């Protein structure tokens, strides 16, 4: 009887499985296996690249592993893409009491939302008094002005964070235009393969958690190494956090997933395809916070950096079950174990 040959790793197989499991809820999938420029490609349905800051190509383990991104633990991060920033003189415009923002060197037209039902961009402004942000509606004044709304449906004009920057008045110093793909308030599953080379308890795996947020911001999640490489996930500024029941190894690959279920009000951690829930502190909320924070891989904004390799990172806007997570680990472990 002939010996059965072990199937080699096939990136397309994992991609197909992730797309099948995620379906319409697959928000993003970054293999983190190349660096053809300043961005990391997204092979999910939205093709939303990450901006690369410092990370380099790394490879650990057997040849079938493929490439990954190496994070140096000092200032390396892959972060949510910024579509544009300041071009000219910046002003918070009251416009009869409603929220509007002006950059006299900009044309906001490409990011304006008309009709309002198709909103896809947000504006985050840093001023001398903090952060004001909102969702971008119609442009006017030749594209120099953009209407700002406090809700994704664009029903209420206004700012979030510092809510009255024109009335203070605040002096805007800078801003960023980003997509709203990661403004997820309901169920969420986040997963990736990690290879920590340090036992730093605060090493961030993934986050959407601004270091110094705008007024009244509730920052959705922070997934990090935890004490002695026992992973932890915080949601809504620590309203609830879960500690893993087991530690992950240093200098080896682990598949880590956290799942937030807004209906069942549960927060779970999976390691290598198995549920590994340790102590839960706090009460799991009915929704995630709405925030100006960037999505980041490998840091919590500009602090708490991860040291090691990360590959095949993804977000799905639904609460994956144990069977789906196990299946993803089984397919992916052909590469990351050996």
What keywords describe this structure?
Jelly Rolls, 338 residues, nine-stranded antiparallel β-sheet, 2 domains, eight-stranded antiparallel β-sheet, mainly beta
Give the SSE layout.
Blueprint: H1 11-22, E1 26-30, E2 39-40, E3 50-53, E4 56-58, E5 68-72, E6 77-80, E7 84-85, E8 90-93, E9 100-103, E10 121-127, E11 130-140, E12 145-149, E13 160-161, E14 172-179, E15 188-196, E16 204-208, E17 221-224, E18 232-235, E19 240-244, E20 254-261, E21 266-271, E22 274-275, E23 277-282, E24 296-297, E25 307-316, H2 322-336
Antiparallel strand pairs: 1-25, 2-3, 3-6, 4-5, 5-25, 6-24, 7-14, 8-9, 9-12, 10-11, 10-14, 11-12, 11-13, 15-20, 15-25, 16-17, 16-24, 17-18, 18-19, 19-23, 20-21, 21-22
Helix pairs in contact: 1-2
General description of the model:
The chain is mostly beta strands and 338 residues long. It has two domains: 11-81 and 184-336, Jelly Rolls, CATH 2.60.120.200; 84-179. Helices cover 8% and strands 38% of the residues. It has helices spanning 11-22, 322-336, and strands at residues 26-30, 39-40, 50-53, 56-58, 68-72, 77-80, 84-85, 90-93, 100-103, 121-127, 130-140, 145-149, 160-161, 172-179, 188-196, 204-208, 221-224, 232-235, 240-244, 254-261, 266-271, 274-275, 277-282, 296-297, 307-316. The strands form three sheets. It has a nine-stranded antiparallel β-sheet, with no helix packed on it. Strands 1, 4, 5, 15, 20, 21, 22 and 25 form an eight-stranded antiparallel β-sheet that branches. Strand 20 (254-261) and strand 21 form a beta hairpin. Helix 1 (11-22) packs antiparallel against helix 2 (322-336). The longest helix has 15 residues, at 322-336.
């Amino acid at each position: 009887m002939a010996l059965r040959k072990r199937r080699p790793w096939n990136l397309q197989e994992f991609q197909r499985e992730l797309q099948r499991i995620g379906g319409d809820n697959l928000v993003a999938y970054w293999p983190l296996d190349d660096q053809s420029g300043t961005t990391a490609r997204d092979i999910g349905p939205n093709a939303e690249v990450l901006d690369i800051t410092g990370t380099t190509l790394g490879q650990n383990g057997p040849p079938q592993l493929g490439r990954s991104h190496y994070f140096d633990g000092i200032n390396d991060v892959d972060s949510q893409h910024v579509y544009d920033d300041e071009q000219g003189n910046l002003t918070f415009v009251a416009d009869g009491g409603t929220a509007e923002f002006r950059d006299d060197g900009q044309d906001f037209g490409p990011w304006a939302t008309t009709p309002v039902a198709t909103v896809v961009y947000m504006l985050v402004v840093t001023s001398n008094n903090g952060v004001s942000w909102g969702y971008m509606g119609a442009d006017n004044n030749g594209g120099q002005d953009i209407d700002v709304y406090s809700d994704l449906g664009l029903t209420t004009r206004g700012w979030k964070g510092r809510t009255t920057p024109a009335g203070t008045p605040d002096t805007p110093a800078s801003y960023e235009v980003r997509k709203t793909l990661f403004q997820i308030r309901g169920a969420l599953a986040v997963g990736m393969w990690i290879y920590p080379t340090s036992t730093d308890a605060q090493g961030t795996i993934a986050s959407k958690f601004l270091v110094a947020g705008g007024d009244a911001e509730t920052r959705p999640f922070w997934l990090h190494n935890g004490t002695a490489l026992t992973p932890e996930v915080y949601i809504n500024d620590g309203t609830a956090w879960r500690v893993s029941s087991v530690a992950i190894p240093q200098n080896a690959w682990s598949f880590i997933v956290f799942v937030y279920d807004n209906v069942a009000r549960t927060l779970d951690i999976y390691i290598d395809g198995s549920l590994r829930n340790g102590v839960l502190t706090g009460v799991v909320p009915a929704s995630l916070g709405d925030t100006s924070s960037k999505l980041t891989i490998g840091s919590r904004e500009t602090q708490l950096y991860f040291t090691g390799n990360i590959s095949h990172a993804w977000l799905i806007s639904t609460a994956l079950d144990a069977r789906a997570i196990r299946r993803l680990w089984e397919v992916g472990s052909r590469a990351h174990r050996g």
